[in-house]
């Protein structure tokens, strides 16, 4: 009986030692808890946010010029492409966001009803952008071109004046003929041929700010294009 009791006590002691050893921190391991990852950080506490400028010097200059040149239009700055461009709903919006979601147009020119009609990009004066910037610019140019929207590229230090800017923008929109001068042009806007009027534009509402909240941000394949039906 005494021998059995001694064995039981010995086993309990051994198990207690094993449990105690497994809970001890390893050498150089600190408290033994897993270190906080970047994802676990509270960015409001770890990365103190501070206000900054929205526009560069060249973008501010271009914005002021366009406000003077096109007072009948709405001028917006740093607008994400996914905010003023749509793709057919049969395609993956997740993939669309992955491709263009982080790209912003420097300045977007809109009709009074907020329908985007033209884009102005401000590039460095020497044209020596980084390789990453060039790829972003090339992707933006392809997307804007595919949408049929005029894209104007201006260089810092060579921003046109209000009259030149007005002529260039309105000509690209088909609102200024060679017989019309900048001071004589009538803002036909929504009534211009081939462009949607106010009612049609109001129906083409932009994606809601919460439109993509529940979407998975992982890459998703695009649906194959629809083939024309045989008659």
UniProtKB/TrEMBL annotation:
The lineage of its organism: Bacteria, Pseudomonadati, Pseudomonadota, Betaproteobacteria, Burkholderiales. This is DUF2726 domain-containing protein. Residues 54-169 form the DUF2726 domain. Residues 180-231 are annotated as: Disordered. InterPro entries: DUF2726 (IPR024402). It holds the Pfam family DUF2726. Residues 180-189 have a biased composition (Polar residues). It comes from Caldimonas caldifontis. Residues 221-231 have a biased composition (Pro residues).
């Amino acid at each position: 009986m005494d021998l059995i009791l001694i064995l039981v006590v010995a086993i309990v002691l051994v198990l207690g030692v094993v449990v105690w050893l497994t809970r001890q921190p390893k050498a150089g391991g600190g408290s033994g808890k897993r270190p906080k990852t970047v994802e676990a950080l509270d960015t409001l506490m770890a990365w103190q946010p501070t206000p900054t400028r929205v526009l560069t010097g060249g973008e501010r200059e271009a914005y002021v010029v366009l406000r003077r040149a096109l007072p009948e239009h709405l001028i917006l700055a740093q607008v994400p492409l996914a905010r003023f461009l749509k793709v057919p709903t049969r395609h993956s919006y997740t993939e669309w966001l992955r491709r263009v979601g982080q790209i912003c147009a420097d300045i977007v020119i809109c009709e009074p009803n907020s329908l985007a009609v033209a884009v102005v990009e401000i590039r460095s004066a020497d044209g020596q952008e980084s390789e990453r910037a060039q790829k972003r610019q090339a992707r933006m140019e392809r997307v804007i071109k595919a949408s049929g929207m005029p894209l104007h590229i201006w260089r810092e230090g060579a921003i046109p004046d209000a009259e030149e800017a007005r002529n260039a923008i309105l000509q690209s929109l088909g609102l200024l003929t060679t017989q019309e001068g900048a001071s004589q042009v009538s803002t036909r806007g929504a009534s211009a041929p081939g462009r949607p009027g106010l009612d049609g534009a109001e129906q083409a509402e932009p994606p809601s700010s919460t439109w993509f909240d529940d979407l998975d941000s992982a890459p998703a394949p695009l649906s194959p294009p629809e083939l024309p039906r045989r008659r």
